[in-house]
Amino acid sequence: MMKNTLKVVLLTSMLPFAASAAEALTPWYVGTGVGVNNYEPSCDLKTMKTCGKDDPYAWDVFGGYMFNEYFGLELGYRDLGRADWTDYSNKSHDVGARGASLGLVTRIPLANNWSITAEAGAFNYLLSNKKQAGSEYYSDNGVAPYVGVGVGYNFTDNLALQAKYRRYETLNEKQWDTLSMESNYWGLALSYRFGTAAKPKTKPAPVAPMAPAIPGDADKDGVTDNLDKCPNTPMTHKVDAKGCSVYEFVTEKYDLGSILFDNDSSVIKPGSYADVEILVSHLEKYPQHTVIIEGHASNVGKPGYNLLLSERRANAVATALTTKYKINTTRIKSVGYGVTKPKMSGDTAEAHRVNRRIEAIVTGTEKRVVLR
To answer: Looking at residue 204, what is its pLDDT?
Structure first.
């Protein structure tokens, strides 16, 4: 390794002085850096008798473009300095590497203007020596990969200083295969980013609030026009907070009449179908309604027989609704009451006639507007 004490010198070269006229920082930047470089193996080879006075100081200039605040592309030119030594044949050797570089850079901002950086790319190097009398001659070029890390500090939005470390691999003389080196670089870099950081917008002076206008209520429903989602609601309707009519669901039962049967019969008489069809029309018009067919009998004969007869009369009408008029069975229920619910009391022929019947009781739920 080099026996010289590594030194870091900040190169205070000229940088652009004029900022861009843009409203914010541009993606472009330029910079320069200086540092020290240590070639490996240098004087570590067993063939090296003595090390001469090295010139380890390295420098570079660069320019870049940031795709965003974290990633960018950087192009530069670098001179890694020189190293010299004498081998056991008393031949003098010296070598230096310089050339163009191209790489990707990333910057991660930290608190208080600090940041950390990383880079990776390719170094298109040229190896050469001073060709002193009796010296071994090295001259070749190639492409060597490099990686680097650093820590930076922004003095302003434009001006930043970074401490850097880079590692170069395979700086080789390939023509005669006489030299194979790596390199470690430490240094400082000063960079300038063009443009001007956007200034925060000045808040406008507060304006004294105007007295709000009182909104009207055109349909007189108690909800102001600015909140009314249902304009022109009738004044008789109860409304909700949005000015829309309030509805309720009411369940009611309707007696849609009855049909009569002959004595001791459960057969629907032909003339009764007109009454049955009144019930059918209602059920078709209101598909949400259901019906209970109640069967009854006159008080003639035994009560048990009359109960069965009333059930047959109710079932006959229920069957006609489903088979003849295609009303869904889930909407129909039939029940027999025998002689327990007479329409007319007494033991007369008229009472017996009107009690031989069925009654259709329809149940429906209606949506109705709630009135004030």
So the answer is: 67
